[in-house]
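Changelog excerpt

This revision adds worked examples to the README so contributors can see how folded entries look when concatenated. The first example is reproduced verbatim below.
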Amino acid sequence: MSRAGAARLDRDLSDLPDGMRWREWMMRAEAAIFAAARPVARQTLAGLVGDACHLDALIADINEELKGRPYEIVFVAGGWQFRTRRRHAETLRALGSAKDAGPPSFTKLEMLALSAIAYQQPVTRAELSRLAGHDISRDILGRLKSLGVITPGPRAPQPGAPIAWVTTARFLEVFALGSLRDLPELDELENDETRSVDEGVEAALDEVLWLNDEEGADDIPCAEDGVEV
């Protein structure tokens, strides 16, 4: 929000009764999230409502009213975003314009690479190949980069200073993660002697990214016109 806009906006709405004030704050937050192409951060929403507004409670009330709708507001990638509910994913895929709805598909090696980057970042291509037990080619990393789920990070302090890869905010957004802290814990998987750590990483990310789930297109981001992006 611009400084001029913030100065003009009456955030506190102190002239309104409590119920009307809360309703106005709900509509402001919903409008801002609906119009945004990316998740809207808490700080941004806080600039639209009074200091007395509890944003988590406000979003909960909005979602309560959306219970009968095919979409909801979800916290992803550090902000709130409208998402189509899982049960409507197949319907959206039936639309030609929405055929690319939901997360992209990944090959086995792409999945291994993405899993390893998510948990081990920053990590170099050589380290990824060692973790995966397969050569992780530049083409694999290039495709993941083209999908926006990884990006080059700092160069590793190794001979030749290779690029180390990290995941992106888009990774969190696509897979409906609020932050990397929402990735499944690996402790139990690491204690499972029947699995290697790498298998555990892959299985854990499979679980949260629902890549092998037929209903895995849950929480598809919605664009302003209600069609997922």
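The second example, added in the same revision:
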Amino acid sequence: MTALQKDRKQGPATAPAAPAAPTKPALHRRTTRRHWWFTPWLYLLVPLTLLVAFTYLPIIDMFGYSATDWDGISPTSENVGADNYLELFTRPELFKVFLVSGVYLLASFVQIAAALYFATVLSFNTRFRNLFKGILFFPYLMNGVAIGFVFLYFFQPGGTLDSLLGTVGYHGRLMWLGDPDLVNKSLAGVSVWRYTGLNMVLFLGAIQSIPGHLYEAASLDGANRWQQFRHIIAPSIKPIISLSVILAISGSLAVFEIPYIMTGGANGSQTFVIQTVNLAFKFDKVGLASASAVVLLALILLVTWIQRRLVPEERVELS
């Protein structure tokens, strides 16, 4: 008897076994999981409520105020449509403040370059690197008002800066905060001094996430420090550099604290935000100030979008 005849005699093959019915504990777990699907949303409820209440609702109100002539005090206001926006775009003096933002923007690129340099140097086995990290990050921990007062004495005629310049033979007294050609550069220098440590910490954290065997392989191939930075560090931390550029651009457009404390916007140091605050609280033009804030928000979103289009986010694989 052949094997085929044997199979026919035995009849059809046994059908595959049906999947086992879920046990009671498994069924209970599935039911519980289905009933508690909203648990993550419960954790998010409070922060989302605060975010909507203190961020998005005020923004919606700001859009509404920008279409009125409200002075900030009167219980009533009239709808003026787009008049506030027309006034903003037809008065060139209101847009001159962006020249001031340009100075801060240039300074922010110096700040990023300095932070990247310090982060790279301190990521290697440098002596006293923890001490240098603390020294560089300390200015960011200081209160902005305190920084403003410290640098008022630093920049005053015959002050600390003039004394330091006197030690190298320069005895001229410059009006660091009184000369319109110098005031914004001086204030931008204060901003660089304060925020370089923050950028350095961001870069340092990204650099330390790079696997060590990449450096070892590069060293075996004879790569020096510059080549390691160019071919390993810079490509690996590109997302953090991109984030820092976005923060630098938005920060340069929204500078307020340091110039407001040190000069109050005098001598040509008025920024867009100081001008907006003055419109709202000095000249009682809350509607026009709200329109300025809307324009600033649109500019920041536009610049961020352009930056993301020019430098798209890429996933970096470290292996």
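Reviewer comment on example two: The mean pLDDT is 84. Residues 256 and 273 are 6 Å apart (CA to CA).
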